[in-house]
Amino acid sequence: MGVGRIGAVLAALGMLSVCAASGSGHVAKRETGAEAEGAEPWDGAVFRPPSALGAVGVARNSGTRRPGREEAVDLPVLLWWSPGLFPHFPGDSERIECARGACVASRDRRVRGDSRTRALLFYGTDFRASEAPLPRLAHQSWALLHEESPLNNFLLSHGPGIRLFNLTATFSRHSDYPLPLQWLPGTAYLRRAAPPLQQRAEWRRRGYAPLLYLQSHCDVPADRDRYVRELMRYIPVDSYGKCLQNRELPTPRLQDTATATTEDPELLAFLSRYKFHLALENAICDDYMTEKLWRPMHLGAVPVYRGSPSVRDWMPNNHSIIIIDDFESPQKLAEFIDFLDKNDEEYVKYLAYKQPGGITNQFLLDSLKHREWGVNDPLLPNYLNGFECFVCDHELARLDAEKAHAASPGDIPVPEPHVAQLSHMACPMPTPGFGSVEEIPENDSWKEMWLQDYWQGLDQGEALTAMIHNNETQQRKFWDYLHEIFMKRNQNL
Ligand SMILES: *[C@@H]1O[C@H](CO)[C@@H](O)[C@H](O)[C@H]1NC(C)=O
Ligand SMILES: *[C@@H]1O[C@H](CO)[C@@H](O)[C@H](O)[C@H]1NC(C)=O
Ligand SMILES: *[C@@H]1O[C@H](CO)[C@@H](O)[C@H](O)[C@H]1NC(C)=O
Ligand SMILES: *[C@@H]1O[C@H](CO)[C@@H](O)[C@H](O)[C@H]1NC(C)=O
């Protein structure tokens, strides 16, 4: 699984690592990416790293070693276990300089058993319980980077899955190295002026609907099409993607899915004709917000949003988006959109955050100000390198604490273990986009796929936890453990 994905990541990282290696600060850039409208990454078919992964590496001078520094031989080693996500180039290992000191980052799996290897780094989308490195060594932390959709790996949404890890960087604000704003470059991105209302009124007269839908990944846990289909009964929606398509983008170039996945100016200009964009994430989880939310705001459209239940916490003010779940039915939502569509004065209130001083949410402003990584920002590290340094610093601190304990075991206790919490992901069980589970026939593809997938994630987390607990050394026994857990669960039904 994931060969194409790994190739894409390598390509992206190969570019971004050039500047880290040369230390000259010259900037390697790749295209600004939006999440694929065509095929969101989830099963290894397609992988497109989000834009932040494509940004520039941590600027540092790796060529010149300052005198008096420890040799690399003594440094803690961080081993990137997931293939394809090694943010350095060329070679298999690299000395990195972080706030507390230096570490060696490596992708050479042969160092796994080494006593200096203090942390294994995993990419959530690629993490397979059946392939986890066993036996788990007590002196090694497991670190998880998972900024992508929860649907890529539901194992991580359950306690037994996430608690396998010691350090996390996820989209959740509660993770150790939080990435909730990974798709928001900054306040200027939100402030960009909206097209004049007269222009949009003209487009409406030319037959465009008030609402846009552009989605080509149709069978997703959030089951968004079921809702949109219902909404379409009450208000016109122009749908251009593969899901519920009822119109075609105007030119072959725009119809090309490769264009739809970029910040292509022609595409953006076209999309900005719409006053409202249906913005439904592919999976529901606190703090999981993507370009589906931020891009309409950039374009001066009002997102009609379903996704993170805590989205309000991040909005520029308390009147910037329409939240689908505030409405008791698609019909009520349609009536409200229709009302705004006909009342410019009420509509423009949703764009007030674009005015000077209009971004009043201090939590949002502070979060943007204090994050150390940037989104396509040549002056800031990307979060991949940022997290690597976070792990390095954590391990240096842990080593110091262990040394202090060893020097005076009577006075200084053994350092406390640090284990990830359920809140670092905790995405809820998928529910139907419209209606109740009981109303949906058993042979419905959503029902067949996602509920099973979600609960299998729990079984897999429990199986691996049991293996680690038993000091299991043989990976291939995973299926026996899984079978046993499955049988136990079904006995208790
Ligand atoms: C929204 O913000 C405005 C201005 O800050 C405030 O007066 C109003 O009470 C807020 N409304 C809600 C529902 O929080
Ligand atoms: C890492 O997490 C595991 C639980 O998954 C825990 O048993 C272990 O003590 C933790 N290690 C450290 C160094 O905190
Ligand atoms: C599901 O079952 C119903 C009735 O049993 C049938 O009419 C329908 O065609 C089936 N749908 C699919 C997708 O198999
Ligand atoms: C696993 O190994 C640890 C450390 O060697 C030991 O304390 C523990 O009892 C072992 N657990 C089992 C179930 O064998």
UniProtKB/TrEMBL annotation:
Domain of life: Eukaryota
Cross-referenced SUPFAM superfamilies: UDP-Glycosyltransferase/glycogen phosphorylase
Membrane topology designation: Single-pass type II membrane protein
InterPro entries cross-referenced by the UniProt entry: Alpha-1_3-FUT_met (IPR017176), Glyco_tran_10_C (IPR055270), Glyco_tran_10_N (IPR031481), Glyco_trans_10 (IPR001503), GT10-like_C_sf (IPR038577)
Fucosyltransferase C-terminal domain: residues covered: 213-356
EC number in record: 2.4.1.-
Signal peptide: 1-21
Gene Ontology MF annotations: alpha-(1->3)-fucosyltransferase activity; peptide-O-fucosyltransferase activity
Leading EC class: transferase
Coiled coil, from the record: none
Record's keyword terms, sorted: Disulfide bond, Endoplasmic reticulum, Glycoprotein, Glycosyltransferase, Membrane, Signal, Signal-anchor, Transferase, Transmembrane, Transmembrane helix
Reaction catalysed by this enzyme: L-seryl-[protein] + GDP-beta-L-fucose = 3-O-(alpha-L-fucosyl)-L-seryl-[protein] + GDP + H(+); L-threonyl-[protein] + GDP-beta-L-fucose = 3-O-(alpha-L-fucosyl)-L-threonyl-[protein] + GDP + H(+)
Subcellular location: Endoplasmic reticulum membrane
Domain Fucosyltransferase N-terminal: 77-180
Pathway assigned in UniProt: Protein modification; protein glycosylation
GO CC annotation terms, alphabetical: endoplasmic reticulum membrane; Golgi membrane
Function: Protein O-fucosyltransferase that specifically catalyzes O-fucosylation of serine or threonine residues in EMI domains of target proteins, such as MMRN1, MMRN2 and EMID1. Attaches fucose through an O-glycosidic linkage. O-fucosylation of EMI domain-containing proteins may be required for facilitating protein folding and secretion. May also show alpha-(1,3)-fucosyltransferase activity toward the innermost N-acetyl glucosamine (GlcNAc) residue in biantennary N-glycan acceptors. However, this was tested with a library of synthetic substrates and this activity is unsure in vivo.
UniProt similarity note: Belongs to the glycosyltransferase 10 family.
Full protein name: GDP-fucose protein O-fucosyltransferase
Organism this protein belongs to: Diceros bicornis minor (South-central black rhinoceros)
